[in-house]
Amino acid sequence: MGQVRQPRRVQARDGELGAAVARAQDGDEAAFTVAYRIVQPGLLGYLRGIVGDDAEDVASDAWLEIARDFGRFQGDGAGFRGWTATIARHRALDHLRRQRVRPRAGGTEQDVLDLPGPHSTHEQALESLSTERALELVRGLPRDQAEAVLLRVVIGLDGPAAARVLDKRPGAVRTAGHRGLKRLARQLGIGSEVDEGMTDVTDEDSRTLGKSR
Amino acid sequence: MNDNSGPAGRADMGERLSGDGVPGRHHAQPGGAVSDSWDVRDVATLETALAAAIRQADLDPQAERRAVAAFRAARAANPHRARTRRRDDWRVPEERRARRPVKTTFGVVVASLALGGVAVAAIDSVSSRSDRTGGDQGAARPSAAAPDRPGDAATSTSSGGSRPTGRPAPARDTEAHCRAYKQVQGHGRTLDAKAWQRLVAAAGGEDEVAAYCSEQLRRATAAPGKSAGTGKSGKGAAGTGNGTSDSKSGGTDKAADKGRASGQGGGKHS
Lengths: 213, 270
Description:
The structure holds two protein chains of two kinds. By secondary structure, chain A is an all-alpha fold.
Protein backbone atom coordinates (compact mmCIF):
# COMPACT_ATOMS: atom_id res chain seq x y z
CA MET A 1 0.00 0.00 0.00
CA GLY A 2 1.21 3.46 -0.68
CA GLN A 3 3.37 2.27 -3.50
CA VAL A 4 3.00 4.28 -6.65
CA ARG A 5 3.72 1.65 -9.21
CA GLN A 6 4.32 2.42 -12.83
CA PRO A 7 2.01 0.98 -15.41
CA ARG A 8 3.58 -2.18 -16.69
CA ARG A 9 3.52 -1.24 -20.32
CA VAL A 10 5.67 1.82 -19.68
CA GLN A 11 8.37 -0.22 -18.00
CA ALA A 12 8.16 -2.97 -20.56
CA ARG A 13 9.74 -0.75 -23.19
CA ASP A 14 12.74 0.21 -21.12
CA GLY A 15 14.79 -2.58 -22.66
CA GLU A 16 13.86 -1.47 -26.14
CA LEU A 17 14.53 2.14 -25.19
CA GLY A 18 17.95 1.35 -23.75
CA ALA A 19 18.94 -0.50 -26.90
CA ALA A 20 17.75 2.37 -29.08
CA VAL A 21 19.68 4.89 -27.01
CA ALA A 22 22.84 2.82 -27.27
CA ARG A 23 22.54 2.54 -31.03
CA ALA A 24 21.74 6.23 -31.35
CA GLN A 25 24.85 7.06 -29.37
CA ASP A 26 26.77 5.23 -32.06
CA GLY A 27 25.22 7.60 -34.55
CA ASP A 28 22.14 5.66 -35.62
CA GLU A 29 19.56 8.29 -36.49
CA ALA A 30 16.69 5.84 -36.85
CA ALA A 31 17.43 4.59 -33.34
CA PHE A 32 17.22 8.13 -32.04
CA THR A 33 13.79 8.38 -33.64
CA VAL A 34 12.75 5.18 -31.89
CA ALA A 35 13.92 6.58 -28.55
CA TYR A 36 12.05 9.80 -29.26
CA ARG A 37 8.83 7.95 -29.97
CA ILE A 38 9.10 5.92 -26.79
CA VAL A 39 9.91 8.85 -24.54
CA GLN A 40 7.90 11.69 -26.01
CA PRO A 41 4.34 10.58 -25.05
CA GLY A 42 5.18 10.55 -21.36
CA LEU A 43 7.34 13.62 -21.54
CA LEU A 44 4.63 15.59 -23.26
CA GLY A 45 2.03 14.39 -20.78
CA TYR A 46 4.24 15.44 -17.91
CA LEU A 47 4.82 18.85 -19.47
CA ARG A 48 1.13 19.36 -20.12
CA GLY A 49 0.55 18.74 -16.46
CA ILE A 50 3.12 21.39 -15.56
CA VAL A 51 2.91 24.10 -18.21
CA GLY A 52 -0.42 23.29 -19.87
CA ASP A 53 -0.86 24.35 -23.46
CA ASP A 54 2.74 25.42 -23.85
CA ALA A 55 3.89 21.83 -23.42
CA GLU A 56 4.69 21.33 -27.11
CA ASP A 57 6.97 24.37 -27.17
CA VAL A 58 8.72 23.42 -23.98
CA ALA A 59 9.13 19.86 -25.23
CA SER A 60 10.70 21.19 -28.42
CA ASP A 61 13.21 23.18 -26.40
CA ALA A 62 13.89 20.15 -24.24
CA TRP A 63 14.57 17.96 -27.27
CA LEU A 64 17.05 20.45 -28.66
CA GLU A 65 18.97 20.13 -25.43
CA ILE A 66 18.53 16.36 -25.30
CA ALA A 67 19.89 16.07 -28.83
CA ARG A 68 22.77 18.41 -28.06
CA ASP A 69 23.88 16.58 -24.91
CA PHE A 70 22.90 13.14 -26.08
CA GLY A 71 26.51 11.99 -26.26
CA ARG A 72 27.03 12.83 -22.61
CA PHE A 73 24.28 10.60 -21.33
CA GLN A 74 25.18 7.32 -19.66
CA GLY A 75 22.63 4.81 -18.48
CA ASP A 76 19.93 2.40 -19.57
CA GLY A 77 16.39 2.92 -20.81
CA ALA A 78 15.00 3.81 -17.40
CA GLY A 79 17.92 6.14 -16.90
CA PHE A 80 17.18 7.83 -20.20
CA ARG A 81 13.63 8.50 -19.06
CA GLY A 82 14.99 10.13 -15.94
CA TRP A 83 17.63 12.13 -17.79
CA THR A 84 15.19 13.46 -20.37
CA ALA A 85 12.61 14.21 -17.68
CA THR A 86 15.18 16.26 -15.80
CA ILE A 87 15.96 18.30 -18.89
CA ALA A 88 12.28 18.77 -19.68
CA ARG A 89 11.60 19.82 -16.11
CA HIS A 90 14.32 22.45 -16.18
CA ARG A 91 12.95 23.84 -19.41
CA ALA A 92 9.45 23.85 -17.89
CA LEU A 93 10.62 25.68 -14.79
CA ASP A 94 12.41 28.23 -16.96
CA HIS A 95 9.22 28.67 -18.88
CA LEU A 96 7.18 29.18 -15.74
CA ARG A 97 9.72 31.66 -14.42
CA ARG A 98 9.48 33.68 -17.61
CA GLN A 99 5.73 33.96 -17.38
CA ARG A 100 5.48 34.50 -13.67
CA VAL A 101 3.20 37.45 -14.38
CA ARG A 102 0.34 35.05 -14.79
CA PRO A 103 0.91 32.24 -12.34
CA ARG A 104 -0.90 29.01 -12.76
CA ALA A 105 -4.17 28.47 -11.04
CA GLY A 106 -3.06 25.43 -9.12
CA GLY A 107 -4.38 25.10 -5.62
CA THR A 108 -7.06 27.74 -5.84
CA GLU A 109 -9.88 25.61 -7.17
CA GLN A 110 -9.66 22.83 -4.67
CA ASP A 111 -13.20 23.22 -3.40
CA VAL A 112 -14.69 22.98 -6.83
CA LEU A 113 -12.49 20.11 -7.90
CA ASP A 114 -13.06 18.24 -4.68
CA LEU A 115 -16.61 17.51 -5.65
CA PRO A 116 -16.89 13.95 -6.83
CA GLY A 117 -17.64 13.40 -10.48
CA PRO A 118 -21.13 12.46 -11.62
CA HIS A 119 -20.26 8.77 -11.80
CA SER A 120 -21.63 6.02 -9.69
CA THR A 121 -18.83 3.45 -9.92
CA HIS A 122 -15.07 3.44 -10.08
CA GLU A 123 -15.12 1.90 -13.50
CA GLN A 124 -17.35 4.54 -14.97
CA ALA A 125 -15.32 7.30 -13.44
CA LEU A 126 -12.09 5.94 -14.83
CA GLU A 127 -13.28 4.70 -18.18
CA SER A 128 -14.63 8.06 -19.12
CA LEU A 129 -11.63 9.94 -17.80
CA SER A 130 -10.72 12.32 -20.58
CA THR A 131 -7.32 13.82 -21.15
CA GLU A 132 -8.66 17.26 -20.34
CA ARG A 133 -10.31 16.17 -17.13
CA ALA A 134 -7.27 14.20 -15.99
CA LEU A 135 -4.96 17.13 -16.68
CA GLU A 136 -7.32 19.53 -15.00
CA LEU A 137 -7.35 17.39 -11.89
CA VAL A 138 -3.59 16.90 -11.84
CA ARG A 139 -2.95 20.57 -12.37
CA GLY A 140 -5.24 21.28 -9.46
CA LEU A 141 -2.88 19.39 -7.17
CA PRO A 142 -0.13 21.14 -5.25
CA ARG A 143 2.92 21.20 -7.50
CA ASP A 144 4.94 18.61 -5.59
CA GLN A 145 2.09 16.12 -5.69
CA ALA A 146 1.36 16.79 -9.33
CA GLU A 147 4.97 16.29 -10.32
CA ALA A 148 5.37 13.14 -8.26
CA VAL A 149 2.27 11.62 -9.82
CA LEU A 150 3.23 12.65 -13.35
CA LEU A 151 6.81 11.47 -13.14
CA ARG A 152 5.90 8.11 -11.74
CA VAL A 153 2.61 7.34 -13.44
CA VAL A 154 2.88 9.16 -16.75
CA ILE A 155 6.61 9.02 -17.46
CA GLY A 156 7.09 5.74 -15.63
CA LEU A 157 10.00 6.56 -13.34
CA ASP A 158 10.66 4.54 -10.23
CA GLY A 159 10.88 6.20 -6.83
CA PRO A 160 14.62 6.95 -6.72
CA ALA A 161 14.62 8.25 -10.28
CA ALA A 162 11.66 10.53 -9.64
CA ALA A 163 13.39 11.77 -6.51
CA ARG A 164 16.53 12.55 -8.48
CA VAL A 165 14.58 14.44 -11.12
CA LEU A 166 12.89 16.50 -8.42
CA ASP A 167 16.06 16.80 -6.37
CA LYS A 168 14.25 15.60 -3.27
CA ARG A 169 14.42 12.67 -0.94
CA PRO A 170 12.71 9.51 -2.21
CA GLY A 171 10.53 9.35 0.89
CA ALA A 172 9.20 12.85 0.32
CA VAL A 173 8.44 12.09 -3.31
CA ARG A 174 6.73 8.83 -2.42
CA THR A 175 4.55 10.61 0.11
CA ALA A 176 3.71 13.39 -2.31
CA GLY A 177 2.81 10.89 -5.01
CA HIS A 178 0.64 8.92 -2.67
CA ARG A 179 -1.19 11.98 -1.42
CA GLY A 180 -1.68 13.20 -4.93
CA LEU A 181 -3.18 9.92 -6.04
CA LYS A 182 -5.46 9.78 -3.04
CA ARG A 183 -6.68 13.23 -3.76
CA LEU A 184 -7.30 12.41 -7.40
CA ALA A 185 -9.14 9.28 -6.39
CA ARG A 186 -11.36 11.28 -4.10
CA GLN A 187 -12.05 13.82 -6.80
CA LEU A 188 -12.99 11.04 -9.14
CA GLY A 189 -15.26 9.55 -6.54
CA ILE A 190 -13.20 6.50 -5.69
CA GLY A 191 -11.19 5.67 -2.58
CA SER A 192 -13.26 8.21 -0.75
CA GLU A 193 -11.67 8.30 2.69
CA VAL A 194 -9.14 11.04 2.92
CA ASP A 195 -7.62 12.66 5.89
CA GLU A 196 -8.37 16.34 5.64
CA GLY A 197 -5.86 17.45 8.22
CA MET A 198 -3.09 15.66 6.38
CA THR A 199 -4.10 17.20 3.11
CA ASP A 200 -4.02 20.68 4.56
CA VAL A 201 -0.52 20.19 5.86
CA THR A 202 0.53 18.95 2.47
CA ASP A 203 -0.81 22.05 0.80
CA GLU A 204 1.12 24.23 3.16
CA ASP A 205 4.30 22.26 2.54
CA SER A 206 4.02 22.39 -1.17
CA ARG A 207 3.40 26.10 -1.25
CA THR A 208 6.50 26.69 0.76
CA LEU A 209 8.46 24.39 -1.48
CA GLY A 210 7.05 26.02 -4.54
CA LYS A 211 8.19 29.41 -3.35
CA SER A 212 11.69 28.33 -2.59
CA ARG A 213 12.14 26.87 -6.00
CA MET B 1 -12.19 -6.38 -9.84
CA ASN B 2 -15.77 -6.04 -10.99
CA ASP B 3 -16.94 -8.64 -8.49
CA ASN B 4 -15.92 -6.85 -5.35
CA SER B 5 -15.04 -3.26 -5.80
CA GLY B 6 -18.21 -2.28 -7.64
CA PRO B 7 -20.56 -2.81 -4.72
CA ALA B 8 -17.95 -1.62 -2.27
CA GLY B 9 -17.56 1.51 -4.32
CA ARG B 10 -21.24 2.12 -4.25
CA ALA B 11 -21.29 1.69 -0.52
CA ASP B 12 -18.53 4.28 -0.24
CA MET B 13 -20.44 6.63 -2.41
CA GLY B 14 -23.55 6.18 -0.32
CA GLU B 15 -21.66 6.97 2.78
CA ARG B 16 -20.15 10.01 1.18
CA LEU B 17 -23.38 11.35 -0.17
CA SER B 18 -25.26 10.81 3.04
CA GLY B 19 -22.66 12.82 4.87
CA ASP B 20 -22.81 16.53 5.38
CA GLY B 21 -20.41 17.43 2.60
CA VAL B 22 -17.23 17.03 4.56
CA PRO B 23 -15.49 14.19 2.78
CA GLY B 24 -13.42 11.90 4.87
CA ARG B 25 -14.94 13.06 8.11
CA HIS B 26 -15.67 9.56 9.28
CA HIS B 27 -12.20 8.25 8.88
CA ALA B 28 -10.02 11.16 9.78
CA GLN B 29 -6.72 9.84 11.10
CA PRO B 30 -4.33 12.51 12.26
CA GLY B 31 -1.40 10.17 11.86
CA GLY B 32 -1.99 10.09 8.17
CA ALA B 33 -2.60 6.35 8.12
CA VAL B 34 -4.32 5.15 5.04
CA SER B 35 -7.85 3.97 5.56
CA ASP B 36 -8.87 0.46 4.70
CA SER B 37 -10.97 1.26 1.69
CA TRP B 38 -7.92 2.56 -0.18
CA ASP B 39 -7.46 -0.60 -2.13
CA VAL B 40 -4.20 -1.39 -3.83
CA ARG B 41 -6.15 -2.35 -6.90
CA ASP B 42 -7.84 1.02 -6.86
CA VAL B 43 -4.43 2.63 -6.99
CA ALA B 44 -3.36 0.47 -9.89
CA THR B 45 -6.58 1.15 -11.74
CA LEU B 46 -6.29 4.84 -11.15
CA GLU B 47 -2.68 4.91 -12.28
CA THR B 48 -3.50 3.06 -15.45
CA ALA B 49 -6.39 5.38 -16.19
CA LEU B 50 -4.29 8.46 -15.55
CA ALA B 51 -1.44 7.23 -17.70
CA ALA B 52 -3.83 6.38 -20.52
CA ALA B 53 -5.49 9.78 -20.31
CA ILE B 54 -2.42 11.96 -19.91
CA ARG B 55 0.23 10.26 -22.03
CA GLN B 56 0.12 11.86 -25.45
CA ALA B 57 -0.34 9.22 -28.06
CA ASP B 58 -0.60 11.56 -31.03
CA LEU B 59 2.83 12.92 -31.73
CA ASP B 60 3.45 15.83 -33.99
CA PRO B 61 5.60 14.54 -36.86
CA GLN B 62 7.09 17.96 -37.32
CA ALA B 63 8.28 18.07 -33.73
CA GLU B 64 9.88 14.69 -34.28
CA ARG B 65 11.66 15.92 -37.39
CA ARG B 66 13.00 18.90 -35.49
CA ALA B 67 14.33 16.65 -32.74
CA VAL B 68 16.01 14.32 -35.19
CA ALA B 69 17.46 17.27 -37.09
CA ALA B 70 18.89 18.59 -33.84
CA PHE B 71 20.38 15.17 -33.18
CA ARG B 72 21.96 15.13 -36.64
CA ALA B 73 23.34 18.63 -36.23
CA ALA B 74 24.79 17.80 -32.84
CA ARG B 75 26.51 14.72 -34.24
CA ALA B 76 27.91 16.69 -37.12
CA ALA B 77 29.22 19.43 -34.86
CA ASN B 78 30.75 17.08 -32.34
CA PRO B 79 31.11 13.51 -33.54
CA HIS B 80 33.00 12.41 -30.45
CA ARG B 81 31.29 11.52 -27.27
CA ALA B 82 31.28 14.49 -24.96
CA ARG B 83 32.18 14.26 -21.31
CA THR B 84 29.58 12.84 -19.02
CA ARG B 85 28.77 15.27 -16.27
CA ARG B 86 27.28 14.09 -13.04
CA ARG B 87 23.82 15.06 -14.16
CA ASP B 88 24.22 12.95 -17.29
CA ASP B 89 25.22 9.82 -15.41
CA TRP B 90 22.12 7.74 -14.78
CA ARG B 91 23.82 4.39 -14.35
CA VAL B 92 21.94 2.58 -11.69
CA PRO B 93 24.18 1.11 -8.95
CA GLU B 94 26.11 4.27 -8.21
CA GLU B 95 22.93 6.25 -8.06
CA ARG B 96 21.25 3.87 -5.68
CA ARG B 97 24.18 3.86 -3.30
CA ALA B 98 24.64 7.61 -3.51
CA ARG B 99 21.15 8.13 -2.14
CA ARG B 100 21.78 6.17 1.02
CA PRO B 101 22.97 8.46 3.79
CA VAL B 102 24.53 5.72 5.92
CA LYS B 103 26.63 4.46 3.07
CA THR B 104 27.58 7.97 2.14
CA THR B 105 28.75 8.63 5.65
CA PHE B 106 30.78 5.46 5.55
CA GLY B 107 32.22 6.54 2.23
CA VAL B 108 33.22 9.89 3.69
CA VAL B 109 35.06 8.16 6.50
CA VAL B 110 36.87 5.91 4.07
CA ALA B 111 37.66 8.84 1.82
CA SER B 112 39.04 10.97 4.61
CA LEU B 113 41.17 8.07 5.74
CA ALA B 114 42.42 7.61 2.23
CA LEU B 115 43.20 11.30 1.82
CA GLY B 116 44.77 11.43 5.25
CA GLY B 117 46.88 8.51 4.20
CA VAL B 118 48.10 10.38 1.17
CA ALA B 119 49.03 13.36 3.31
CA VAL B 120 50.84 11.21 5.84
CA ALA B 121 52.63 9.37 3.08
CA ALA B 122 53.72 12.63 1.52
CA ILE B 123 54.97 14.04 4.82
CA ASP B 124 56.73 10.83 5.56
CA SER B 125 58.47 10.61 2.25
CA VAL B 126 59.43 14.25 1.95
CA SER B 127 60.13 15.69 5.37
CA SER B 128 61.08 12.89 7.73
CA ARG B 129 63.23 11.11 5.24
CA SER B 130 65.10 14.20 4.18
CA ASP B 131 65.86 14.79 7.84
CA ARG B 132 67.61 11.51 7.94
CA THR B 133 71.23 11.39 7.07
CA GLY B 134 72.69 8.96 4.64
CA GLY B 135 71.95 7.59 1.24
CA ASP B 136 68.21 7.91 1.65
CA GLN B 137 68.39 11.53 0.61
CA GLY B 138 68.40 10.75 -3.05
CA ALA B 139 65.12 8.96 -2.80
CA ALA B 140 63.33 11.63 -0.84
CA ARG B 141 61.01 12.58 -3.63
CA PRO B 142 58.16 10.14 -3.88
CA SER B 143 58.26 10.21 -7.64
CA ALA B 144 61.80 8.91 -7.58
CA ALA B 145 60.83 5.77 -5.73
CA ALA B 146 63.15 2.89 -6.43
CA PRO B 147 61.68 -0.44 -7.35
CA ASP B 148 63.34 -2.40 -4.57
CA ARG B 149 62.28 -0.16 -1.73
CA PRO B 150 58.96 -1.27 -0.40
CA GLY B 151 58.35 1.81 1.72
CA ASP B 152 58.61 4.10 -1.25
CA ALA B 153 56.78 1.78 -3.49
CA ALA B 154 53.94 1.89 -1.04
CA THR B 155 53.88 5.65 -0.82
CA SER B 156 53.52 6.13 -4.51
CA THR B 157 50.02 5.61 -5.64
CA SER B 158 51.04 4.48 -9.04
CA SER B 159 53.43 1.70 -9.87
CA GLY B 160 56.54 3.72 -9.26
CA GLY B 161 58.70 0.63 -9.42
CA SER B 162 57.73 -0.60 -12.78
CA ARG B 163 57.73 2.82 -14.38
CA PRO B 164 60.47 4.99 -12.93
CA THR B 165 59.47 8.00 -14.99
CA GLY B 166 55.91 7.62 -13.77
CA ARG B 167 53.31 10.28 -13.85
CA PRO B 168 54.23 13.51 -12.06
CA ALA B 169 53.23 13.81 -8.42
CA PRO B 170 50.24 16.10 -9.09
CA ALA B 171 48.78 13.49 -11.39
CA ARG B 172 49.03 10.91 -8.68
CA ASP B 173 47.45 13.34 -6.23
CA THR B 174 44.62 13.85 -8.62
CA GLU B 175 44.29 10.14 -9.02
CA ALA B 176 44.12 9.70 -5.25
CA HIS B 177 41.53 12.44 -4.97
CA CYS B 178 39.58 10.85 -7.73
CA ARG B 179 39.60 7.55 -5.90
CA ALA B 180 38.39 9.30 -2.80
CA TYR B 181 35.79 11.09 -4.88
CA LYS B 182 34.65 7.77 -6.24
CA GLN B 183 34.48 6.41 -2.71
CA VAL B 184 31.99 9.07 -1.70
CA GLN B 185 29.96 8.24 -4.77
CA GLY B 186 30.39 11.50 -6.55
CA HIS B 187 29.38 13.72 -3.69
CA GLY B 188 32.56 15.65 -4.06
CA ARG B 189 31.68 18.34 -1.59
CA THR B 190 32.02 15.88 1.22
CA LEU B 191 35.69 15.57 0.44
CA ASP B 192 38.22 17.58 2.31
CA ALA B 193 37.69 21.12 1.04
CA LYS B 194 41.20 21.54 -0.32
CA ALA B 195 41.16 18.23 -2.08
CA TRP B 196 37.82 19.06 -3.61
CA GLN B 197 38.96 22.49 -4.74
CA ARG B 198 42.04 21.03 -6.33
CA LEU B 199 39.94 18.41 -8.04
CA VAL B 200 37.53 21.02 -9.36
CA ALA B 201 40.45 23.11 -10.59
CA ALA B 202 42.03 20.14 -12.29
CA ALA B 203 38.76 19.09 -13.89
CA GLY B 204 37.88 22.60 -14.98
CA GLY B 205 34.60 22.92 -13.14
CA GLU B 206 32.41 21.15 -10.64
CA ASP B 207 30.27 19.58 -13.28
CA GLU B 208 33.27 18.12 -14.97
CA VAL B 209 34.68 16.31 -11.98
CA ALA B 210 32.80 13.06 -12.47
CA ALA B 211 33.83 12.80 -16.10
CA TYR B 212 37.34 13.93 -15.38
CA CYS B 213 37.80 11.39 -12.64
CA SER B 214 36.41 8.48 -14.56
CA GLU B 215 38.83 9.39 -17.34
CA GLN B 216 41.74 9.69 -14.89
CA LEU B 217 41.00 6.42 -13.20
CA ARG B 218 40.47 4.64 -16.46
CA ARG B 219 43.86 5.85 -17.60
CA ALA B 220 45.45 5.01 -14.28
CA THR B 221 44.20 1.47 -14.22
CA ALA B 222 44.89 0.90 -17.88
CA ALA B 223 48.42 2.24 -18.00
CA PRO B 224 50.42 0.05 -15.57
CA GLY B 225 49.27 -3.21 -17.09
CA LYS B 226 50.37 -2.09 -20.51
CA SER B 227 53.68 -0.51 -19.62
CA ALA B 228 55.33 -3.29 -17.70
CA GLY B 229 54.96 -6.89 -16.72
CA THR B 230 54.74 -6.13 -13.01
CA GLY B 231 51.05 -6.58 -12.86
CA LYS B 232 51.22 -6.80 -9.11
CA SER B 233 52.23 -3.25 -8.57
CA GLY B 234 49.60 -2.16 -11.00
CA LYS B 235 47.07 -4.03 -8.97
CA GLY B 236 48.25 -2.38 -5.84
CA ALA B 237 47.87 0.98 -7.44
CA ALA B 238 44.39 0.20 -8.54
CA GLY B 239 43.20 -0.41 -5.01
CA THR B 240 42.71 2.13 -2.30
CA GLY B 241 46.26 1.67 -1.18
CA ASN B 242 46.88 5.29 -0.39
CA GLY B 243 46.95 5.08 3.37
CA THR B 244 49.76 2.60 3.51
CA SER B 245 52.78 4.70 4.26
CA ASP B 246 53.98 2.64 7.17
CA SER B 247 54.35 -0.67 5.50
CA LYS B 248 58.10 -0.74 5.60
CA SER B 249 58.62 -4.36 6.47
CA GLY B 250 60.49 -6.64 4.17
CA GLY B 251 62.80 -5.90 1.32
CA THR B 252 61.42 -7.67 -1.67
CA ASP B 253 58.70 -6.72 -4.05
CA LYS B 254 56.52 -9.46 -2.72
CA ALA B 255 56.80 -8.20 0.80
CA ALA B 256 55.97 -4.75 -0.44
CA ASP B 257 52.85 -6.02 -2.02
CA LYS B 258 51.95 -7.80 1.17
CA GLY B 259 52.53 -4.70 3.19
CA ARG B 260 50.40 -2.78 0.83
CA ALA B 261 47.66 -5.30 1.02
CA SER B 262 47.58 -5.29 4.80
CA GLY B 263 47.85 -1.55 4.93
CA GLN B 264 44.96 -1.37 2.61
CA GLY B 265 42.86 -3.54 4.84
CA GLY B 266 43.77 -1.49 7.86
CA GLY B 267 42.89 1.70 6.14
CA LYS B 268 39.48 0.40 5.30
CA HIS B 269 38.60 -0.91 8.69
CA SER B 270 40.08 1.60 11.05
